[in-house]
Amino acid sequence: MSDPTTDSPVIPASSGSSAPLYLIDGSGYIFRAFHALPPLTRPDGTPVNAVYGFCAMILKLIEDLKAERLAVIFDAGRRSFRNDIYPEYKAHRPEAPEELVPQFPLIRDATRAFALPCIEMVGFEADDLIASYARAARDAGQEVVIVSADKDLMQLVRDGVALMDPMKAKRIGADQVFEKFGVAPDRVVDVQALAGDSTDNVPGVPGIGIKTAAQLIGEYGDLDTLLARASEIKQPKRRQNLIEHADKARMSRELVRLREDVALPDPLDSLHVGEMVPEVVLSFLEQQGFSSLIAKLRPHLGHIKPVTGGSAGAGAAAVADEISEAGRQYELVQDEAALARWIEAATEAGIVGFDTETTGLDPHRASLVGLSLAVSPGRACYVPLRHVAAAEKQGALDLSAAQGGLDLAGDGGGHGGATGDDGAPPAQIPVGRALEMLKPLLEAPGVLKVGQNIKYDMIIMAREGILVSPIDDTMVMSYALDGTRHGHGMDELAQIHLGVTPISFDAVTGRGRDRISFAAVTLDRACAYAAEDADITLNLHRMLKPRLAAEHVRALYERTDRALVPVLARMERRGIRVDREALGRASREFADAMAILETRIHELAGESFNVGSPKQLGEILFDKLNLPGGKKGKTGAYATGADILQKLVVEGHELPAKVLEWRQLAKLKNTYADALVETINPETGRVHTSFALTITTTGRLSSNDPNLQNIPVRTVEGRRIRRAFVPDPGFVLMSADYSQIELRLLADIAGITTLRDAFRDGIDIHALTASQVFGLPVEGMDPMVRRKAKAINFGIIYGISAFGLAQQLDIPQSESRRYIEAYFERYPGIRDYMERAKADARAHGFVTTIFGRKCWTPDISAKNPALRAFAERAAINAPLQGSAADIVRLAMVQLDRALEASPLGARMLLQVHDEILLEVPVAEVDETTALVRQVMQDVVSRPVPYVVEVGIGDNWDAAH
Questions:
Q1: Domain 3'-5' exonuclease: where (predicted)?
Q2: Domains of the chain
Q3: How far apart are CA 41 and CA 100, in angstroms?
C-alpha cells in the first residue's frame, strides 16, 4: 500500500521479476462472491452482488499480499477442447444463474479498472492458462503462487509453485496435496483419472474412489502401469472394472490433466500490478453504487474529495474538511492530574466521545479494561484501568501494518509498554479512584456522551456503578438516517463518511490461537486503538447529527430510537429467570420422542441410518425408495431441505413427515433446551439476551446471544421451552400484546372505512371478512370459513399469491384466486394501497412508516422477476410491519417512563415482535395491567384503536 498522505495510487507499479507471480483463479472468485453475498442491485436494477464481492476480495488480497506481480485469469466460456474429447464433459452443469450472467463482463471491467491483467482464452479453461503461466514462470526461475481453492490445481504444485487457499490464507504444498489425494502432486492426475469427478462429469472407473485410487497408484506407480497389470488385481469386481473401463480411465486423464503448453495471451513479463487511474476507478465504483469501496480507496486516491454521506450538503462537507485537516493527538492517561484535565476539557466542551475496552463481548460477564474520551477532532485519550503484564508473544504484532504512523504525542503521561522493566503491571490510576473522578462527568446532565453502540458501554459502566447519561449513539443515528442501505458498524461508517480505515482489533490483539486479551495489550498500542475509536465516534456524530433535521428523522431518532437505548440496557441487565430443571425435563422428553421417531423412520426406510445426515437421508429417499424430486447439488449429495421434504409430505409420504418432526425436536433440544442452560449467567442466575436496534429493514428489534424471539409457539413442544421462563418468587409474568396490529394498520393506512369501523366497534375482523367475501352472516359463522378469511387477511399483508393461499388452505388454485379477487372487490382501497406502495418504492427506493422511518427496497426495479416480486411484497408489507415496530418501540419508551414514575414494582424483561413481557409483583397485577394497557394503547392517536391484550401466568407460555 502506498503512503496515504501522498497522491500515489493504492498499489505501486512494478515489473521486477524477483517478486512472486500471483495467478488468481478469477472464475472461482466470481462464484464464491456470488454465493456468499445476498442479492444486491445498482440503481438501474442490474445485479452486482458478485461484482461487489469480487472487488472487495481482490483488493483485500492485493493489500494483504503486497503483490507486485499478478494476473486474474477467467474462463472464456463453457466449452473447451475437452468437449471435443468427451462431449458430455460438464454437460450436466446448469446454466449460470440469470442474475449472475450480466455480472461477468462487469467483473472483467472491475479487474481492468484496478489496473490488473485480465486474461482469458476461448477454447481453454482458466486452469489451463494458470498451468501454462505457472510453467513459463517456473522455467524462467520465478516463484509462482496460484490463488485458488480448486483441487484440480493441486496437480501443479511442485518446487517453486505453491497453491494458496484465499479464504483461509493458507499455503498448500506437496504435504497438503498428499493429505488430500494420498499421492504426490505429480500423480494427482492419475488418481483423478481413476476416481472420476461427478462435478465435471468425468467418468473415471466405476467403484473406485479417491482413497482406492491412491492406494492403487501407490502400489503400481502410475496409471499406465496399473492398467497394463490390471489382471493382477485380486478383487474380482475391481479387476473387471479396470479392464473394462481402461479406455475411460485414459480419456479421464486427458480431461483432468491441465494443459501447460497454451500460447500465452499476454507476455509473462507484462503480468504486474499497474497504477490505478483515480478517475477510472472512481467512475466504475460510482456506477455500481459501491460507496464503501470508494471510501476504502479514497485515502489512496489523494485528489478525490470525501463523500458527505447524505443530504446535509455544504455543512457536512465543511465538517468533513475540518475533520480531515485536524491532526491526531492521542494521549495515554496514567495519572490523576492528566485525567482531571481531560474531564475538565470534556465538561467545558459539553460533549465527549466515549468508548470502553473490555475483556470480552458479553457486557454482563466482561471486565472493564480501560476507556477512551474524545473532545474534538483528533484530540482523544485512553485511560487504562486493568491492564496486566503483557504476553511474551505481544511483540509479534505490527500495528503500523494496520494503520499509517499515528501521532501519539500527548501533553501528560508517557507511552510506556504494558509492563515495567521488571515485568510488573503498567502504571495506571487505581480503578476505584479513576471511576470516582469520571462518575460526575459520565452522569452530568449537561455533557452529552456520544458512543457507537453505546448500549454496550452503558451496561459495562452500570456494573461499575456509573449510569451514563445523556447519550447519543452514532450507530443508532446512522440507522435512523439510512436504514439497511449499508451496515452501521464503526469501521463501515468511518469508511463511508470519513474515508478512514480504523485500526483493526486483530492488529492489536492478534488472531486465532495467538490472540491475547486486550488487558495484555501494550499501552501505546491500546491507546492508538482505543483513542481512535472515540475520536472516530465523535467525528461521525459531527457528520451525522446535522442530517437528522435535514432528512426529517430527528423526531424518530430522538423520541423513539435513541430513547430506547437506555430502556434496552436496563432490560438486558435485568435478564429473565430460567428454570434449569424444566429445561432438563424438556431435553429428556425431546430425546425420548426423537428415539421413537428414529425407530419409525428406520422401519419406513427398511434399514438404519443417521437421520441427521442429509447425505444418508437423500440416498434413502431418492436412491432406495425412488421418491420423486431428487436433485443433487455440487457435492453430489441430494438436497433434503425442509421445502423438499414438505413437498413429499404433501404427496402423502410418511417418512419425510417423520423426519421433519424429528428435525423440529432436534432443534428444540439442541438450540433451546440444552443451549439455554449454558447461557444462564452464573452471577445473576438469569439469561441476558442482547437486543439489536439496527439490523432489520422495518425497525423490528432482533434478539441474540441467545435469540429469544425464534422460540416456536405454534407447537406444543415449542411452548414447552417457553414454560421454562419463569418469574422470581412473589412475581408473575405479564404478556402485553398488541392485537392484530398489522391488520389495524392496514385498515388505518389504506383508509378502509369498513375495517376501521369494525375495529372501533370490536367486531371479529376475520368473521367480518368472511361475511364480506363469502356473503355469509357474521352470526353463527362456521369456524372453517372464518379460518379461510383469516388466511386471506394475513396473507394479503405479505402479498400472498393464489398458489400460496391454495397450499395453505388445501384448496384448488382456481378457488383461492376467486377468494383473493372477491377480497379486493369488497376492499378496493387495499389494492389501491398496494399499488401506491409499489409506486412509492419505485420512485424513491424506499417506503415509509407512519413515523417516517425509511424502509429501503433496493430490488424494486430489478430485471430478475423473482427479485422484483420479492421487493414489491416488501414494499407493501414494510409500512405495516415497520409502523408496528415503531409503535412497539415507542410503547417501550413510554412504559419505562410510566413505571419509573409509579410506585409499582413491575419491570420490563423482553420484547418479542408485538409483545412486551414484564415481571410483576403478585399483589400489583391489577394496577399494573391497567397502567400497561393505558400507556400502550395511548402511544399513538389514530383513526383505528390499537388494542392491547394482557395475559398473566407463572411462566411465559401461561402468560402468553
A1: 330-549
A2: 21-173+258-270 (3.40.50.1010), 328-472+504-535 (3.30.420.10), 576-687 (1.20.1060.10), 694-742+848-960 (3.30.70.370), 753-826 (no CATH)
A3: 11
Residues 153, 156: Cα–Cα separation, whole Å: 6
Distance separating alpha carbons of residues 669 and 675, to the nearest angstrom: 8
Which residue has 466405476 as its cell numbers? 206
By residue count, the chain amounts to 960
Residue given cell 402468560 in the structure block: 959
Beta strands in 491-613, from DSSP E residues, in sequence order: 576-578
Contacts by 624-631 with C-beta closer than 8 Å and gap 24+?
625/655, 627/653, 627/656
Task: Assess contact for 837 and 879: CB atoms under 8 A.
Answer: yes
Both ends of the chain: CA-CA distance in Å? 58
112-121, 812-821, 897-906, range with greatest mean pLDDT: 897-906
Long-range contacts of 245-249 (CB under 8 A, 24+ apart): 245/203, 245/204, 245/205, 245/206, 248/203, 248/204, 248/205, 249/193, 249/194, 249/204, 249/205, 249/223
CB-based contact 135:31 (threshold 8 Å): no
48 grid coordinates: 452486482
pLDDT above 50 for 1: no
- 339, 370 Cβ separation under 8 angstroms: no
Residue 228 in 3-state DSSP? Answer: helix
Q: What is the reported pTM? A: 0.66
Q: Which residues pair with 449 in a beta bridge?
A: 352, 471
In whole angstroms, give the CA distance from residue 308 to residue 499: 10
Q: Is pLDDT larger for residue 523 or for residue 826? A: 523
Sequence-distant (≥ 6) Cβ neighbours of residue 30 within 8 angstroms:
50, 54, 74, 100, 103, 104, 107
Residue 533 has pLDDT above 70, yes or no: yes
pLDDT > 70: percent of the chain: 90
Q: What is the pLDDT of residues 43-97, one digit of tens each?
A: 667 888 899 889 988 888 877 778 888 999 998 877 788 888 888 887 767 777 8
Please report the pLDDT score of residue 311 as a whole number.
39
CB-based burial label for 562 (10 Å; 0-12, 13-18, 19+): buried
Per DSSP, which regions of 812-914 are E strands?
846-848, 854-856, 907-912
pLDDT band at 299 (very low <50, low <70, confident <90, very high): low
